[in-house]
Structure of O-antigen/teichoic acid export membrane protein:
Amino acid sequence: MQFDHRRAGGALLRAAGPIAVAVAVQSAGNLAFHALVGRMLDPADYGALGALLAAMVMLGIPLGALQTAASAHAAAHGAGRATTLGTLRAVTLWTLPAGVLTLVCAPLLSDWFHLDGMAGAAQLAPYLIVAALLATARGLLLGTRRISAVAGTYLVATAVRLILGVALALPFGVTGALVATLVSEVAALAWSVRVLVRDREAGSGTTLRPRAVGGAAVAVTGLFLFSTVDLLLARHHLAGAESGAYVAAATVAKTVLALPAAIMAAVFPRLVAAHGLPGRARTLLSASAAVAGPALFGAAVVAAVPALVLSVLYGDGYAGATTLVQVLSGVAGFTSLVTVLTNAALARRSWTTLVPWAGAVLEIGLIQLWHGSAAQIAACSAAALLPTLLLIAVVEGRAWTRRTPVLQGV
């Protein structure tokens, strides 16, 4: 039977609709959270908060590989009560040592980010464990096609974070905003587990294995490091107020990647199914349009009215960051192409998934050499993007357009 690329792709994109809507709401909520908290804190404190929130996401993003692996596992074996509880128990055991290590390193992290006390950095430890469990639970739900339940987790997390963020940031500052973020993830996890354990069937009873997560972890971690390391280094190298301006600009710019990331989750299985079959180049092109199109459009809109966006979200205190917003929005838009091509490499299990890692190393090297101002750091981020995108585009373009030999007798 011939694989129908258009029909399969359309079905996947329609299935991703609820998640795409929920992620759009989450992105708006994330901007609202930053806008509200950014107005409550002075720029120096907001810079510290932004760096810690980026570190939280950086800890959680590699665990997004758990979502991919758990989704595949649930699709193959089911996700009844026994499978769910066994898998979540296993993931807890895997991530507990990492959480303890993060807690031990809290003093070093506090010094790196120039924080007052260790309370903020210490919260990275429980966040790591909760993020791992939430990614796994979402994967199990996706694998059993409970798409609306996954969308619900994003909506719950957004609502809890906004409400608690406003309530806790004013009296407790950076620590209160971080507590709101952690509790929002706990609420989303509770929502996921509640849906999963209502399934009384045992399923196969098999649990997720660590080796199933490895390849996806390499790709996801490299992508996130490549797209976020500039923000972390900006906090380290720049003075308090200037680091706050960079965090504000980067937060606005990188928000354009949230919705395409949700679409990518739906497109990735299509890439897996299409690789090795005739017409796969068309599949890659349509995937690129579906993912990078919204990102580039969003980046163009933000870059066209940066002053208005900053004024609405953060007030007049960040008016000087308009050029940063324009540069970083462009970088974020074209980074979405790197995301698609890296997922294409993952679909065919290629070494090309390491290209974003090389790009991140290049970006770190450039920023370490030139970090005298926020503009220099943004320029270094843009300079690292160009060779990274060109390399992965050439390699994956050749792989996906190479003629597939027709097997006789099959």
Observations:
- The chain has a mean pLDDT of 81.
- Residues 213-404 form one domain.
